[in-house]
Design a protein that fits this description.
two-stranded antiparallel sheet; mainly alpha; 2 helices; 31% helix; 85 residues
């Protein structure tokens, strides 16, 4: 039987009588750098007169963007490795 990492953590936590906490960070994906140029259409409320055909270049990841989860994971992995994990 193969034991997953989560099973090991849960077992260790139980054996030394620790508590497990869970959290959700709602803005996690909004701060990650992008490794490709991505453009989006302007929102109607922000279109300036005479610039109707313009697009916006994203500087950071945007929630709901296909690349958002991958960019977050790459940053998380980098930070964890940097700290010896």
């Amino acid at each position: 039987m193969k034991i997953s990492s989560i099973h090991v953590v849960l077992g260790l936590t139980n054996s030394v009588d620790l508590e497990i906490e869970q959290m959700n960070v709602k803005i996690t994906f909004l701060h990650e750098d992008l490794d490709k140029e991505i453009y989006i259409e302007q929102l109607e409320v922000f279109i300036a007169k005479g610039k109707e055909g313009y697009v916006c270049k994203l500087k950071k990841s945007l929630y709901g963007l296909k690349q958002a989860q991958r960019q977050w994971y790459k940053k998380f992995d980098f930070v964890m490795e940097e700290h010896g994990y």
